[in-house]
What does this fold into?
Amino acid sequence: MDYFLYLTQMCGIFMILAMGLNLINGLCGQFSLGHAGFWAVGAYTGAAFSVFTNLPLPGFIILLIACLLGFITAAIAGLIIGIPCLRLRGDYLAIATLGFGEIIRIIFMNMDSVGGPRGFTDIPKLSNLFWVYFFVVLSIIFCANLIRGGYGRAIISIREDEIAAESMGIQTFKYKTLAFCIGAGMAGLAGVLFAHTTQFISPNNFTFMWSVIILLMIILGGLGSISGAIIGAVILTLLPELLRLLGPTVSEWRMVIYSVLLILLMLAKPTGILGKKEITFSFGKKEKA
Amino acid sequence: MSQVLKTDAITMQFGGLTAVDSLSLEINQNDLIGIIGPNGAGKTTAFNMITGHYLPTKGNVFLNNEKINGVRPAVITQKGIARTFQNIRLFKDLTVLDNIRIAAHSRCEYGFFDSIFRTKKFKDYERKIEEEAISLLSIFKMQGYSDHLAKNLPYGMQRRLEIARAMATKPSLLLLDEPAAGMNPNETIELTKLIRWIRDEFKLAILLIEHDMRLVMEVCEKIYVLDYGKTIAVGTPSEIQNNPKVIEAYLGSEGVENE
It folds into this structure.
């Protein structure tokens, strides 16, 4: 059953990653392809903290501190990369963030103290199902509250029309940077959880391909929708594994089937499964997305 | 009457082309001023310089006696200049209410964490903003539409929403870039009344660009005429109508020369 537990945790980790990218790409409209880079920053920071400091504290407190540190360092990395990159638009921004994402990976590849290309081993297994989904719920509440307030609306207005937003008194650069930092921070948080789930991370875990897959998750679920990001994360995490279970012939062709399914889905529903809609549940008076 | 906007011979050059050549505007509170001119005369460029989208090559812009060239457009809006666009630029996929609320955000009093933790300050201020937005919508006769997506509104109403959104920034000067473009005659008559009413109700100055001469002549008290970037005439509507230079710019020079 460990395999299923692992998959469930990976679903949660990808949900946080997808929600973070959804904030940058789906809500703020800034095309970023460097998400895996921030994921790596969080993973390495969190792992380095729990491995090197060895504090005599209960595991979950170490994990919480690691998560906080991972969030902050990834957000700072987002700030450093965002300030030059967010002056660019569209394709240019995508290429610049792609480059920075790879730079981050190469830096870790060349840092011998964290294992370099051999990977970072012996990370304590501090994360479990509870903590992963604790942070998933926290992220959902965070994102939902953000988009239903003035700051979220300011971020969305940039996606809708940057020139009009600027003319309505929204300091677009400030809000783009804000969205970019929070999105990067969430990727960092997911990275900490990832490192403490798999107990082993290497620079090859954070290649450009993963930035693309996270992007696919939010496009598949519906750009700009939090529930869409979650659904997309679940589908794209489980689909390759499900195809693996369907016998040896399917298993051999699974990446092909996976791609064809994606193509068919995008042809049938180009705006993604949910479009911009949200699935909402009402708990008494309080609404949650 | 206090002066709202003054442009001091602003010039905009794109490479070798002088789009606007030493334009000097003076706008006081409660003024309703029009800029007209043939296509490509530099009217929208003038707007873009005033709102900070372009930095004038020469000359200065003063808003309430404060120099504002080089200031970012968002900050200029916060200082009191709001504008609409020639081709409507609404937040299409958002509701009418959200369009208005976004414009009110620059006056937001709560911090980022208030919005995440839903503090009382956040809730109180959100309620206030929503009430303001709804009353603004009812002023513009759109009270029943607050939940509609902006892109689903009829064209005339989209134009009106754009003006309402600009008003939500609480400007002291409103710039309207061809507000009547694409409107039918009835809508234009209504718009004429609306523009005058806004000026009287909110006690602000309005500067508008328009091709619809009936609207301009009826609503504006003073008109600037631009042609190839140069200001060729300034005056009241009746002075402008009889100005030979203006007639030349619009109808060509042959007729004038033969006289």
